[in-house]
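Researcher: Structure for this, please.
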Amino acid sequence: MSMTTTTSGARDRVLIFDTTLRDGEQCPGATMTLDEKLAVAELLDTMGVDIIEAGFPIASNGDFEAVAEIARRSKRAVIAGLARAIPADIARAGEAVRHAQRGRIHTFVSTSPIHLAHQMRKSEDEVVEIILKTVAQARDLVEDVEWSAMDATRTGIDYLCRCVEAAIRAGATTINLPDTVGYATPSEYRAMFASVRERVPNADKAVFSVHCHNDLGLAVANTLAGLEGGARQVECTINGIGERAGNAALEEVVMAIRTRGDVMPFETGIESTLLTRASKLVSHATNFPVQFNKAIVGRNAFAHESGIHQDGMLKNAETYEIMTPASVGLAKTSLVMGKHSGRAAFRSKLGELGLQLTDNQFQDVFERFKALADRKKHVYDEDIEALVDENLATAHDRIRLVSLSVIAGTHGPQRATLKIMVDGRTITEEADGNGPVDAVFNAIHALVPHEAVLELYQVHAVTEGTDAQAEVSVRLKDGERSVTARGADPDTLVASAKAYLSALNKLSAAARRLHAQAI
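Model: Predicted structure, token format:
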């Protein structure tokens, strides 16, 4: 990739538009609670994200409430609400962001021939009229309006230019040309932006934005190509989560710009040392694990096992590392915490890890820490992060684990005795199973009857050692709803029960929200 700049050393500011809470949450099973969304939004604001797309207000009362509360709490970031090109959508989005210090309505409409024929069922002229009316409506509500041409990369360039010109004339201040289906290649995407900006007479009155999906694994490459074509806003998500194969990953875009400043004369306002923390928070909030070889924030991103690589690293880290672990907030594991550590030391450790808790949350996590320290010789930073994330995820659960005992061995059947608390009432059940995990899940099913199907059961160790906490991921599907949840404990079976119960809590909460909306 090559690029020149007219002024030596000059760097263009690239705005970071994070859509983890909207597009990211549309990833099947990635639904977050309000508290989880607020925690993610607070960290995004702290790390310097310019625009936070907080949700799709018309989609549900829960989405509206989340966008409105994030708007009230935001300190620096612009808070955006998504809206289709429908008057009711736009009005709802405007209401959701009205308390933000800086609010944005992000409205979109399809422009490609295939979408117009099969989804919109409108003519090109009709869609232009829709753009003019709905963008003008949004501009009457807020000064900051973004318009997106859904499926822009499969739209004819002449018609795309016509739509962009209409949107800017109606009051759009940001124009997003997304690769909605992850179809484009970098050269095509760059050329599209260059052509539109050259041909649209009022293009200088708007900031152009990229939004790339990763269906062909080209989301980040296309994003950077869009910047070459003149875009100055990047739409992305933490860990690249999102529909289908996901979106361009924020951490990859930010570090690519920072690391390759020699060929990309851009800069962002992101505090990169918070990237690892953001990755972990979103991973736990959505219950989507980060693949080990994920760029920037994966467990193996800075690991070197090859003898040749290790030899080079010992002599000079720059032989095989193009950025430092510290630059993305990855610190070496600490062993300073143990069963003799007090409240002051524990609170200090939380501060070092960038974790902020209320007094009630701190007390609960501290008690869990002391219980864990009695069972483990060393409590690692990752253990503490797992305790905090579990606390945030289960704070409002109706169903809670009280105790579990399992009889297992080479001669079956295995048997689990499970005690849980449901809405303050304690109930117990015993069940057999084809293995200890099956026995535990059968006991849960007997206590909490449900029709959900187990789609995923996954175990990994939080840290090294035989006394490491096990972190279990469970995904349940009930009809069209799919949720993923995690549980952590030194006992793998206890972690399994916690994860399964947490998933049931999420399904229950989703059912209650749907029921409330129906009423």
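Researcher: Any notable elements?
Model: The two ends are 55 Å apart (CA to CA). The longest strand covers residues 399-407.
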